[in-house]
Design a protein that fits this description.
- The structure is a homodimer.
- By secondary structure, chain A is an alpha/beta fold.
- The first copy, chain A, contains 15 helices and 11 strands.
- In chain A, the strands form 2 sheets. An 8-stranded parallel barrel of chain A has the order 1-2-3-4-7-8-9-11, surrounded by 7 helices. A two-stranded antiparallel ribbon of chain A has the order 5-6.
- In chain A, helix 7 links the parallel strand 8 and strand 9.
- The termini of chain A are far apart.
- Chains A and B meet through helix 2, helix 3, helix 4 and strand 6 of A and helix 2, helix 3, helix 4 and strand 6 of B.
- The complex binds flavin mononucleotide (FMN) (2 copies).
- One flavin mononucleotide (FMN) binds next to strand 3, strand 8 and helix 10 of chain B.
Chain lengths: 451, 451
């Protein structure tokens, strides 16, 4: 296999105070939750030429166990809502992509299409939407439901939701607004396209009441890893945020999803796969281990157990903390792929419940690497060159230090190996990710448009 | 009657290219629809110490008559969605209030409460929500409806929507997030409040997954003038954006709404009334008239007629353009107050359809004043001192020139008369508007909080 010609894409996953569950208790973590704290992180990532900053999101505080929730920084309560936060960042950054998570289960396609279209225009072409269906069971209670929406129903709605949003983003030709003062024509009615969508979940006339955006449309990202999740991604997504631990998992997911593209008339380059990585960087192996241990020691047992329950979708609190994972756990309606991932890990390594929560508390089911800059660059290179990833979402253990470490120590090493850019290739997120600008499906032909 | 002790509040109503329907055709109007164009306007308003910038909004392109719509800059298609736009402006302004319109008919209370809460945090306390119920009949088609929602039903939903949002904004005490590294407690569970709302339209558990905002909550503005609109405002709003033409109309609206406050246990200062004013400023009367005529001449007949139909809620195109307004027009389901306002004007002044559209095309049902700086200051002062208004929303005819004219010529005149501030009184929108910071209804007592 020859060396890949493209380069690694990097996203900065900006979870405040840091990705490790106990980061906020660490004396070097910032617990500031002001705009300035995020601005600082965005500037760091942009100066390092990251493709994008990335925000996870949810629409509920996770309060099933309030006692445990109150001991976590990340109980589903975020300092800011991501679309507004990225909009605020758009006017004080220039090049970095701005990707916000929003749920198809608890939002409306017209409003969502419009807000992301607006963000793309505000940022001159740097917006991305991370489409999720929300695995959190508590979100449903904030939106009129009595119980969580079933996995299959969430994806049924997500498929149609994506179609509506993509359709609305083609409401106007790029050159629809002619603003001809002389003739008094502000837009060309032929370059306006009503959607007239009628489906099982939505009825939306259109057009979207915002002009087409600089990227044609925002980049569509996805983060679901079940069968239906992969199918939706293969059909519509341009990037996938994934969670894999082993190289084999990563390679088989990569091959699986890329293999589905052809059936939808898409090519391998049309979808970038960007798994998360939780890097604990030290100038020596010992330093890295010590950094990691310092965080692990801050994990409170209730919190570890709570996180494990949240990720595996089942409540493990009735079982002995130092016993094995019970083999007869029920399959849940939450994130199936996450549940399997976590339980597989426990079985493979024969872990107790306590050992398991210590294993996943930091990276939360993502790939955890503790080592020197060259060790970390080695495994990233390996995963990239072996087609397990097109790039990575960097989940720094503590903020801002963990991100600064990665940028100061690992990024130069990736550059030395020719694996990461030294300058932005373009001005839009699409151009930097190497994605095509989509043609408007409804557009009047170029010949007609040129008249 | 003694002179009022408070000062005039000023909002800048930032409609791109200008408020006059034909502004975009004027050689001096900017037709730029980039972020930079808005940033320029926001900077102008902030340098002049305006209380706020204000954005109207709708969730549909108005396409009933595409031919006419395509000849207007304001056909319901906005360059940006206002919440994202104001978020982007929040990071590049310091003092000015940021008020966005959003509809209770076509959005969701949890998402809306969260985004405005986020904007308030991003701006360190400068956010306002202009609650509207959407009179535009076309919006319904983008949200699954077969026809416009009835006026009474829109207000029924709006009442409950406001309650849910206000309740969610009290989800957390101001000091709920203690972030105590030592004890491992991130928030105090006693200072978290679930809403558990169950009503006719909404079922929302809460809490909102964002901390309480710097102003306690964003300023609640409203813009509905019917009976139900005034009642909702008297109960919940802190500012009203209104449309009045005569001093008598303004005074009776003012007295009416302020008179309702007592019944809700509120005082006269708890609600500011800020009608729109469309000022055409000239250094001489002749210059002002010429400026106005130059705009009027640019109005295309289809556009004038279309606008009239939109504002009065009835299609007047079957009637002769130079004939009178028919007396047997049906009452519509759209904005009742707007319809009456427009038709009353026509009857009072015995106008033809063409004369009427020429009368309202500029100010669109708002108060139009064409004159010198001192003439304009005179009528503003008169309306303020006679309790017809607590301030005004300035609807500049063309942008940026019309706003710059008002700031350069009228604002100094208001200052000379001691009617307008020279420096911001506070740092939040509430402080500048002279509104109290609301107490959290659920908060644990101050004594307990101080433990
Ligand atoms: C890597 C990854 C990240 C995710 N991030 C979010 C998120 O930020 N917010 C959210 O509501 N759901 C998130 N999800 C959940 C998915 O959207 C989806 O609802 C859930 O995983 C169930 O779908 P699946 O079984 O296809 O994975 C994430 C899932 C994965 C795999
Ligand atoms: C001065 C004023 C400004 C308004 N601005 C908006 C707006 O920006 N967007 C909108 O959807 N509705 C707007 N409305 C409509 C109101 O929200 C309301 O839906 C409509 O007027 C019907 O209510 P009413 O009969 O109480 O006035 C406005 C109404 C008034 C009086």
């Amino acid at each position: 296999m020859g060396r890949r010609k493209d380069k690694i894409k990097l996203g900065a996953f900006l979870l405040f105070t840091g990705h490790h569950v106990a980061a906020w208790r660490h004396p070097q973590a910032s617990v500031g939750t002001d705009f300035e704290n995020y601005f600082e992180l965005a500037k760091l990532a942009e100066a390092a030429k990251f493709d994008a900053i990335f925000f996870a999101d949810g629409v509920a505080a996770r309060l099933k166990v309030v006692e445990a929730a109150s001991r976590k920084a990340h109980s589903g309560v975020y300092p800011f809502e991501p679309i507004t936060l990225l909009s605020a960042l758009s006017s004080v950054t220039r090049n970095i992509g701005l990707i916000a998570t929003a749920s198809t289960s608890f939002s409306d396609p017209y409003n969502l299409a419009r807000q992301f279209g607006s963000l793309d225009r505000l940022s001159a072409g740097r917006a991305g939407w991370n489409l999720v269906t929300s695995s959190d069971p508590e979100a449903a209670y904030n939106f009129g439901h009595e119980a969580q929406i079933l996995h299959a129903d969430r994806y049924d709605r997500a498929e149609e939701f994506a179609d509506v949003v993509l359709g609305l983003w083609d409401s106007w030709d790029d050159d629809a607004f002619i603003r001809d003062r002389e003739s008094g024509r502000y837009f060309d009615p032929e370059r306006l396209h009503r959607l007239d969508h009628k489906g099982r979940h939505f009825k939306v006339r259109g057009p979207l009441n915002i002009p087409r955006s600089p990227q044609g449309r925002p980049v569509l990202v996805q983060a679901g890893a079940s069968g239906p999740g992969k199918e939706l991604a293969a059909r519509t997504a341009e990037a996938i945020f994934a969670a894999h631990i082993t190289l084999d998992e990563a390679k088989s997911f990569y091959a699986d999803v890329k293999g589905k593209l052809g059936a939808y008339g898409r090519s391998l380059d049309d979808l970038k796969i960007l798994p998360g990585i939780f890097p604990v960087v030290g100038r020596s192996e010992t330093e890295a281990q010590e950094k990691f241990e310092a965080l692990q020691e801050l994990i409170q047992p209730q919190v570890g157990l709570n996180l494990l329950s949240q990720l595996s979708g089942v409540d493990l609190s009735p079982y002995p903390l130092d016993g094995p994972i019970p083999s007869d756990l029920p399959v849940t309606n939450a994130g199936k792929s996450r549940q399997e991932l976590v339980l597989d890990l426990a079985r493979r390594e024969n872990l107790t419940i306590r050992q398991l929560y210590l294993r996943i508390a930091g990276a939360r089911g993502h790939w955890q690497v503790v080592g020197t800059p060259s060790q970390i660059a080695d495994v990233m290179e390996e995963r990239f060159e072996n087609y397990g990833a097109d790039g990575f979402n960097i989940m720094a253990p503590i903020m801002p230090g963990g991100l600064a470490d990665f940028i100061e120590l690992v990024v130069p090493e990736l550059r030395r190996r020719g694996l990461f850019r030294t300058e932005y290739e373009g001005t839009t997120l699409r151009e930097n990710l190497g994605l095509k600008r989509p043609v408007n499906r409804f557009a009047v032909s170029n010949a007609a448009a040129a008249e």
